[in-house]
Amino acid sequence: MGSEITVRMIDVAKAFGETRALKKCDFEARAGEVHAIVGENGSGKSTMAKIMSGVLHPDAGKVTILGEKVASPVDAKRVGLTTIFQEVLVADEASVFENLYVGRDGVFRSQSTGDRRTEAAEILARLVGKSVDLDQLAGSLPLSIKQWIVIARAILRKPQVLILDESSAALDLDSTLRLHAEIDRLRAEGATILIVTHRIAELVRIADRATILRDGITVGTLGKDEITEENLLSMMTPADRRASDATEYASRKKALEAPLILTATGLAAHRSARLFDFDLPKGSIVGVAGLDGQGQDAFIRALAGIIQPFGGEVKVRSVDTDKMVPLRSLDDAANLGVSYVSGDRKREGIFPQQSIFENLAIGVYRKKLGPLGVIRKPTLKPMFKREVDRLRIKIGSPSNRITSLSGGNQQKVLIGRAFANDPQVILLNDPARGVDLGTKRDLYRELRLFAEKGGSVIYLSSEIEEFIGFADRVDVFFGGTLFRSLTGEEIAEAPILAAMFGKARDASVDFDLERTA
Amino acid sequence: MSATAFRQVTQDRSLYVPAGLFLVLLCAVAFRGQGLFTNNGLAGAILVATPLILTALAITPIVMAGRGAVDLSVGPLMGFVNVTLITWLVGNGITHPVAIIAWAVGLGAAFQLVQALVIIYVRVAPIIVTLSGFLVLSGVNLMVMSRPGGVAPDWMLSWGAGTSVFSPVLLLLLGAFAIWGVLRGTMFYRNLRMTGADERMAYTSGVQVDVVRIIAHMVGGVFAGLAALSYTALISSGDPTQGSTYTLQAVTALVLGGASLSGGRGGALGSTLGAINMFLISYLLSTFNFGTVSGFVTQMAFGLILVGSLLVNVFVISRRTVA
Amino acid sequence: MISTVLNTEIGAAGGSSALRKHKSISIGFCLLAGLLILGALLVPGFVSPQNARSILLLAAFLGLASVGQTLCALVGALDLSIPYIIGGANILLPSLMVAGLPAPVAMIVVLVLGTLVGACNGALSFRLQGQALIMSLGLGFAAVGAVQIYTSLGSQFGGTVFAPVPGWLRNLSAFNGKFFGLPFPPVIVIWAVIAVALGWIMHNTWFGRSLYAVGGSRTAAARLGISEFKVWTVIHSVSGAMSALTGMLLLGFSGGGFVGVGDPYLFTTVAAVVIGGTSLLGGAGGYGATVLGVLVLTVLTSLLVGLGLSFPAQQAVVGLLIVPMVAIYARSPHIRNQI
């Protein structure tokens, strides 16, 4: 038992316009194993998962799932492959029950609800840890339960091959352990489980094998004993980058002693969370970390004036008066020189139908208005050129659409938009999401330069490795509040991870299944 | 049926507004006189309201399928079936009921099939496809029949008398409800709702969204054919000019019935209630005597009720998402 | 001669960058040129000052009525109140003049009322988004109903109002109107001026840029501090005002008030916007494109009339044209690429 090959990819390639998401991908998974697919953001993991699921068709190469070709999700369903996609796909207007069984039957088969309801109630109770009303509209449920609905939907199908694409992102530690128990159960039944993730700590424990992707190429597969953090990291990231990172650290410690430019007092992400204070020294880079939904996202948005925090106050030192002035709205943020860059560039960053120039310049129009709202355009061209040069944005003609650029260059344009206003403080909300290595490096370099010239940076990231050798301080959120501030030696993977899971300072985090209480 | 309908009303808040409006209008109509609640009154009401109810039903599955697919072509499609039936069939001596009904239903379904295929395979936004269908059919209708005229087949003439509640027109209506009822019992209905609510989720979960969309359109086409039959019975002739009116009224009825034009929410019950409410509004207004301006008062009141109902709908729905 | 008039007009309105950016613009130009050549070859008298004048005159009305529709389409809205406001203005103006208001005052009153209806429309429909078009329809009904009640109270007028139209208003938009002695009605110049001004405003003012921003990505626009509500309300107000203006100018064209005069504009404005290349989903396109769409529609109509096609046949041809035109520039991505 357990040795038959269920998933096979040979020489698979896939490009989206200019971007080559997958260059050469070879992969094999067996029945009864948990196989991790690891890589940095933008390395092509999700594309690989989508090709296996039949959502995307490869440009070249061969993919067989349980000996068959899968060309659509309908095919996938037929062969017994189920995918839990990164995005939590739940229909808000439909009931929990409908969400669980969507797509299970053909177009015209009559509905049978009898056994399904008990089965569904059972599995949700097991996963969520408490019973969930099946007739409730899914839209009224919190994100974490929606995530469980998506997982339960997949498990209810009793899949032969299950793909989890970053599916544990929104789960806390207890939930992660429950998910792992579920994965174990499926493995014991002989299913193939593919975990697509960049969270290394998680798979050290659960995976039987791991295949590593780098820049669209599968660089190797590790067996159970070889899966260690060091091995994974060294295969995921090229050697040169790891070497260059460590050296930068010492010189930056002084930054934290500078006078404060931004303070926040008595903040809370939601009503029941413990209040916390936050301060940002001038010229420093502060990293913000946390598992999804621990309040760090709301925190950075509150600093940007996008949302109102529950109580508390944000103050920024005004350039003109040198006094601390409250920041309550987007307008305040603009006046005080606080710029915000979102990592969700598709949704809240770019204007897809507009030119590259327009996308960068629109951030400064308001400062360049003459009478009747007429934009003084001549001043914009030098500004545009300055930002393009500074960030080394690779563009063709400035009048080309922004969507003609790769994801990394689009992100640079958005960062250029933030820089163009000459801000005092830049807030970055996971800007490196889906961005290639080169872009990340340019980004770190520019932010360090910005900080050295007296600018201040708050950098939220979902990838711990980003902070190491880059941030002067890392503030970790847990349970809707600032849980711990880490400086100096503590800015390393293990302490950050411990704090993210709400552990004591010296505890090590391991995903021990026995501890599922 | 009434029990499930009741449960639906109590569960689905989008039906609160149309159901409430229906009760208010019913009381108001009763207060104004008993005219509607006689045999003749009801028979007339059914005759007049059925084409509207059926056109509203005809766009319901299409709107439910999502992508902002408001079917603008429904009115002219009904007109197209109406004028071709009078000119091409009756005009050439084909009057057999089976032929007439098959033509109406088949033509409606065939046209919607074409629209669905264009939407799916040419990948143009549905509203543009149906706008195109609207313009083409509006033109073609006038080419088939330049002005209202012709006569309905003999056997249909008695339908439009409006003397009995249990007329064949009511049968058309019940037939449409029966088709819908059968569909509701199958997975198609659930797949349709899921496709409209979140097409990407439905697609990745293995729902054949293209098939669902095609069927939704064809069911809508069948209803449009039935609407055309009831319309032909109502006017006992052909009329190529009413397409635009019926499109606007049907879309309005749908929205009054609590459906969301962006998909996922709505149903036959809501659309029917919406259409009946529209009928009741104009009926109610017609019981007042505004003299020479009555037509204009009707129009204005109608517009204002539409605006008010939309605003209340927003309130009810936004409260739900907060809860 | 016509094509030079057209070219300068579009060149000024659309700007040369639009030419490079949008496939649809160049296709529109080809289509227009093709239609003009076809007309010249097939229809005797197609290339004549009279025909050019009549094409431009009809295009001017459609063009003015399409201003609001274009702006609405740029943020993904549709304004269905346009025909009703046109019709309402068309009968309100003469009945106000019969009531004794001086013509300029009456015109201002009508324009203000049109703007107000538009503003209401924008303010009320903002929260509805997808449903907004039904709101505009409802308000259109209400407005035109109210106007008709006003015009018929104490008079025999209903949907039609007879009143002496001042000579200057007649000259503005009648077929044989003169523009400072030149043989074309001034409404064409009014349209041209508005088109050029609007094209400039859209590209060079904060309002214009925020309009595109909201249409392109609501959330991204909100992050830049752009008030979507303000944009939404302003464009609907502009649409109301332009519809009222069109209604009043149409009075000069026809000589008598008729409430149904706006009806053809319900979907032709949408068709002009779509054929021009402004996506109904928002964010892309512009008034320059709509000018092109208006001209294509009007020239096509004129050609079809010249070929002896009836109005219904023209409508059918226009309908058939829409899907291929949109398919060229605005196909939606396959669902595979949206996951």
UniProtKB/TrEMBL annotation, chain A:
Keyword Nucleotide-binding included in the entry's annotation: yes
Record-linked InterPro entries: AAA+_ATPase (IPR003593), ABC_carbohydrate_import_ATPase (IPR050107), ABC_transporter-like_ATP-bd (IPR003439), ABC_transporter-like_CS (IPR017871), P-loop_NTPase (IPR027417)
Residue span(s) of domain ABC transporter: 7-240, 256-504
Signal peptide range: none
Pfam family, one: ABC_tran
PROSITE patterns: ABC_TRANSPORTER_1, ABC_TRANSPORTER_2
GO MF annotations, alphabetized: ATP binding; ATP hydrolysis activity
Domain of life: Bacteria
Keywords recorded for this protein, A-Z: ATP-binding, Membrane, Nucleotide-binding, Repeat, Sugar transport, Transport
Similarity remark: Belongs to the ABC transporter superfamily.
Annotated protein name in UniProt: Ribose transport system ATP-binding protein
Originating organism: Rhizobium giardinii
Source species taxonomy: Bacteria, Pseudomonadati, Pseudomonadota, Alphaproteobacteria, Hyphomicrobiales
TrEMBL record, chain B:
Protein localization: Cell membrane
Pfam families the record matches: BPD_transp_2
Cellular-component GO terms for this entry: plasma membrane
Name this polypeptide is given: Monosaccharide ABC transporter membrane protein, CUT2 family
Stretches of the chain forming a coiled coil according to its record: none
Transmembrane portions of the chain: 15-35, 41-65, 77-94, 100-120, 127-145, 165-183, 211-234, 246-264, 271-290, 296-317
UniProt keyword list: Cell membrane, Membrane, Transmembrane, Transmembrane helix
Entry membrane topology: Multi-pass membrane protein
GO molecular function: transmembrane transporter activity
Lineage top rank: taxon: Bacteria
From TrEMBL, chain C:
Tagged with keyword Cell membrane: yes
CDD domains linked to this entry: TM_PBP1_transp_AraH_like
Keywords, ordered alphabetically: Cell inner membrane, Cell membrane, Membrane, Transmembrane, Transmembrane helix, Transport
A Pfam family recorded for this sequence: BPD_transp_2
Membrane-traversing stretches: 25-43, 55-78, 98-120, 132-151, 179-201, 231-253, 265-282, 289-307, 313-330
Chief site of localization: membrane
Locations listed in the record: Cell membrane
GO molecular function: transmembrane transporter activity
Domain of life from the UniProt record: Bacteria
Membrane topology: Multi-pass membrane protein
CC annotations in GO: plasma membrane
Subunit and interaction comment: The complex is composed of two ATP-binding proteins (LsrA), two transmembrane proteins (LsrC and LsrD) and a solute-binding protein (LsrB).
Function in brief: Part of the ABC transporter complex LsrABCD involved in autoinducer 2 (AI-2) import. Probably responsible for the translocation of the substrate across the membrane.
Protein name per Swiss-Prot or TrEMBL: Autoinducer 2 import system permease protein LsrC
Organism: Rhizobium giardinii
Lineage per the UniProt record: Bacteria, Pseudomonadati, Pseudomonadota, Alphaproteobacteria, Hyphomicrobiales
